[in-house]
Design brief:
117 residues, alpha/beta, Hypothetical Protein Ychn, Chain: A, five-stranded parallel sheet, 4 helices, 34% helix, 21% strand, globular
Length: 117
């Protein structure tokens, strides 16, 4: 099977890129593909575990937690995390790791396709 890489740069409440990324990742996992995701810039806000937003039944954090529990590898940029006061990933749902650009380089090198959102 293939490895699908994602680069997500936007936060959860600016646009719906997080939803598109989550939906594509779910579909890839359903077909048996490997999913690797790198959260960069405001993309690091997507898996924050204390999210609330009126009128949303399913929060971005829930979708990312579900992806991680299904085996998707999700890494947030450590510099971006720290610059936004997210305490080195302590604010994240289970399964999301904090890393760096070398992790993203590895995702790019090992992915058959890379989707940027």
């Amino acid at each position: 099977m293939a490895t699908l890489g994602f680069l997500l740069t936007l936060g959860p409440f600016q646009f719906e890129n997080w939803d598109t990324a989550a939906s594509l990742a779910e579909a890839a996992l359903d077909k048996g593909h490997e999913v690797r995701m790198f959260l960069y810039l405001d993309g690091v806000y997507n898996p924050v575990k204390l999210q609330t937003f009126p009128d949303l039944d399913v929060m971005p954090k829930d979708r990312f937690a579900a992806l991680a529990s299904r085996g998707a590898k999700i890494i947030a940029c450590g510099i971006c995390v720290n610059a936004r006061g997210l305490e080195k990933g302590k604010d994240y749902v289970e399964g999301v790791k904090v890393g760096g650009l070398p992790d993203f380089a590895e995702i790019v090198a090992e992915s058959d396709s890379l989707i940027t959102l």
